Amino acid sequence: MNKLIECLDREFAQLHLGSCELIRGASTALLYRKPPGGFGSRLSFAEHILRSAATVEQTFGGITANLWDDPFEWTLPEPLSTTEKVAGYLVEVEVTRAHGFELFKSDDDLLKGILAPAGETQLLPLLLDTLVRAVHYQGRAFATLDIVRGQSSEVRKDG
Questions:
Q1: What are the strands, taking DSSP E only, across the chain?
Q2: 0.85 exceeded by the pTM?
Q3: How far from 96 is each of 38, 101, 119, 158, CA to CA, in Å?
Q4: Rounded distance, CA 21 to CA 83, Å?
Q5: Could you tell me if 87 and 24 are in contact, meaning their C-beta atoms sit under 8 angstroms apart?
Q6: HSE-up of residue 151 (Cα within 13 Å, Cβ side)
Q7: Main-chain dihedrals φ then ψ at residue 122, nearest 5 degrees
Q8: Which is nearest to 60 in space by CA: 29, 36, 108, 92?
């Protein structure tokens, strides 16, 4: 009866699947296209997806290997320049996340304290915060892709 673990695992897996679907449904040409000014963040949809995945990677890298580094350096547009490369990175993050969940044997494990960069915290609030932030970035990615797809079709109509 590890309902919390099962629920969190399912939510993180769903997050991963949503990001993979988004990347599969986009062209490489749209990956890093910026939305026009006035639409909130000036990040591309791929940058939002990478931030979502990097949030998960940082937390689970910390849980599994006590490696709390920000994945910013290896999630830059230059090394992840195609949809296939971004999808490959998403799979790497999912493997790390799944490995982290293998360490949780019961829901009681989620109440244990760990030392994170911001200080001591329990696993459950850390995982919930990670999920909320990652879902937020993913939502921004969906919205941004809709905007740049709209721009793309407007260019074709005008051009």
A1: 113-116, 119-122
A2: yes
A3: 36, 9, 22, 45
A4: 11
A5: yes
A6: 15
A7: -85, 155
A8: 92
* Residue 56 binned pLDDT confidence (cut-offs 50, 70, 90): very high
Q: What tokens appear for 56 in the block?
A: 């998960």
Residue corresponding to tokens 């490959």: 88
User: Encoding tokens for residue 138?
Assistant: 């993913």
Between the alpha carbon of residue 84 and those of residues 2, 27, 41, 142, the distances in Å are: 35, 10, 25, 18
Short-list 70, 68, 77, CA closest to 49: 77
pLDDT tens digit sequence for 26-49: 999 999 998 887 656 688 999 999
Q: How far apart are CA 12 and CA 68, in angstroms?
A: 19
The token duo for 91 is 């799979």
Specify which residues 113 forms β-bridges with.
Answer: 122
Q: State the Cα–Cα distance between residues 137 and 90, nearest whole angstrom.
A: 14
Would you mind telling me the total number of residues written for the chain in this entry?
A: 159
Return phi, psi of residue 116, to 5°.
Answer: -105, 170
